[in-house]
Design a protein that fits this description.
single chain; alpha+beta; 11 strands
């Protein structure tokens, strides 16, 4: 059975990646139905690893630790609870509805790494479970740093690299889960050696501040510079939602200031309008 067969459950972290999967299946003359990407619903690299599969408990942790980024995903309280219910239902279906599965993964994306570790620790998949890591796909001068960077053609090519998740692979991922669970710090990111590590919730603040000076700079330029810094490193360990959240916290703390634009979490206008600078 082909990895993209409609008879297989397809699991992928990014919404753009889900779109590429559907288009790749269409190139084979097939249609994928009910494909729901996980990442847009929950940033898996924030919060304790053992709460990824338990969205309601995870939201309690977020609120208690001032780490609720759902506002930057355009969610008010009601829609956030609705999203949590959808995530809980998704996990419940995985636990009860066993069938052949293909997991699409990018080991250069810390959210994807966190998600895969939690997924394999939580769910006892059938033996016919395939894992496809797209991290070797070339994009520009580097590699894709998310399944969302894949094109339909590259998805079809990557399908040839599918491997079965055997007990040795499961055991390795369970040990990773135990390592993260042993000392939760609120966030996971890549260290200088490319290894995912637990880190404090404000660990990205120093990177953000590197691109903010004493002079006013356009907010959107600061954000694009931070993202380019990741691209140059050939990894992805934060997204725009997290960047908006951390900038907001730095403003609240009086470390930086903003002029123009407004804090508009529901994206009625561009939330990156205006300028930023360090507070003297």
């Amino acid at each position: 059975m082909h990895p993209l067969s409609p008879q297989r459950r397809q699991i992928i972290y990014s919404d753009s990646g889900a779109g590429a999967l559907k288009q790749a299946a269409m190139l084979r003359g097939e249609r994928l139905k009910g494909l729901v990407p996980y990442g847009p619903m929950q940033e898996a690299f924030i919060g304790p690893i053992d709460l990824i599969a338990h969205p309601f408990e995870r939201q309690i942790w977020r609120e208690a630790n001032d780490a609720d980024t759902s506002i930057w995903r355009g969610l008010d309280a009601e829609s956030r609870h609705e999203a949590d219910r959808a995530v809980a239902s998704w996990w419940a279906d995985l636990r009860t509805n066993k069938r052949p599965t293909t997991i699409w993964h990018c080991s250069r994306d810390v959210g994807d790494v966190s998600f895969l570790v939690a997924l394999l620790n939580e769910i006892e998949f059938e033996e016919d479970t395939l894992l496809i890591d797209v991290a070797d796909i070339v994009s520009g001068k580097g590699h894709v740093t998310s399944t969302g960077g894949c094109r339909p053609g590259s998805i079809l090519s990557a399908a040839d690299s599918a491997v079965h998740i055997d007990e040795a692979k499961r055991d390795k991922l369970r040990k990773e889960f135990a390592r993260f669970a042993a000392s939760p710090k609120g966030l996971r990111l890549f260290d200088t050696n490319g290894v995912v590590q637990e880190a404090p919730i404000d660990a990205h603040d120093a990177t953000i501040l590197n691109f903010i000076s004493d002079d006013w700079r356009p907010y959107i330029r600061v954000m694009s510079d931070v993202v380019k810094h990741q691209i140059d490193r050939d990894i992805r360990d934060l997204d725009y939602g997290v960047l908006l959240w951390r900038v907001d916290k730095l403003i609240e703390a009086g470390v930086i200031e903003r002029r123009g634009g407004s804090r508009e979490p529901l994206f009625v206008e561009n939330p990156m309008m205006g300028d930023l600078r360090r507070v003297a």
